[in-house]
Amino acid sequence: MELKKSKEADNERIKGPAMMIGLLFIGSLVLASFSYTTAIDRKTSDKLVENLSEDSFEQTQEEPEEEPPQEETAVEVPPPPAEEILEEENKEEPPKKIVPVPPPVKIATEQTKISEEIIEFPDVEASFPGGAAALKQYIRDNVVYPEMAMEMNEQGKVYLSFVVEKDGKITNIKVERGVSSDLDKEAKRVVRSMPKWIPGETKGKSVRTKCSLPIVFVIQ
């Protein structure tokens, strides 16, 4: 007995594998399209990166443009008006005061006497009016013993030098050898208070004469 194959049974058998084949074909197409687009995207992105890097590198290599130097603006000062210049030219300076020159100072007669030569050994010595005895009496009557010197028991001989001028006045009193400050001052005071001496003479003319005189201080 022969078995008869029906067409419907054959179609059912073929239908399953055909559907699988179709699905596989469609999936492969889908995968191929995705892979193609990603490859294109990668190429375009790589090109963009290369372009950007080249542009940035070229920009960094470009030298900065130098700014043009700024011109200094000169400020012009307007000249003064002509009227002011004329006023300044017409101004006259006041005359300067002339300071009168003082007349030359006359040298005193005493200074001229001092500047003259002093004779130490004249033909005639200068003397106190009345002689040596009158000189000792004058010193005895006019010396005042300083109280401080008496308390300190100061005593001794003070040697003085002085100049008798041509007119008899006494100048240039100096202590050549003293005892104490109080006794030296008193000795100079006594000589300064003396009256005019009789001036010395050389060749019959009055001259300046240097004299020396000791004054003794003794506590009695």
Describe the protein in words:
The protein is α+β, with helices and mostly antiparallel strands. It has a domain at 116-217: TolA/TonB C-terminal domain, CATH 3.30.2420.10. It has six helices and five strands; from the N terminus they run H-H-H-E-H-H-E-E-H-E-E. Strands 1, 2, 3, 4 and 5 form a five-stranded mixed β-sheet that branches. It is rod-shaped and about 195 Å long. It starts with 6 loop residues before the first helix and ends with a strand. Mean pLDDT is 75; it is low at 1-5 and 56-61.
CATH names the topology of the domain at 116-217 as TolA/TonB C-terminal domain
Low-confidence stretches: 1-5, 56-61
What is the C-level CATH assignment of the domain at 116-217?
Alpha Beta
Portion of residues in helices?
Answer: 40-55%
End-to-end span in angstroms?
206 Å
**Total E-strand runs:** 5
Order of helices and strands: HHHEHHEEHEE
Helix and strand arrangement:
Blueprint: H1 7-61, H2 82-90, H3 109-115, E1 118-119, H4 132-142, H5 147-151, E2 156-164, E3 170-177, H6 181-192, E4 200-202, E5 205-217
Parallel strand pairs: 1-5
Antiparallel strand pairs: 2-3, 2-5, 4-5
Give the tags.
alpha+beta; TolA/TonB C-terminal domain; 5 strands; 16% strand; disordered N terminus
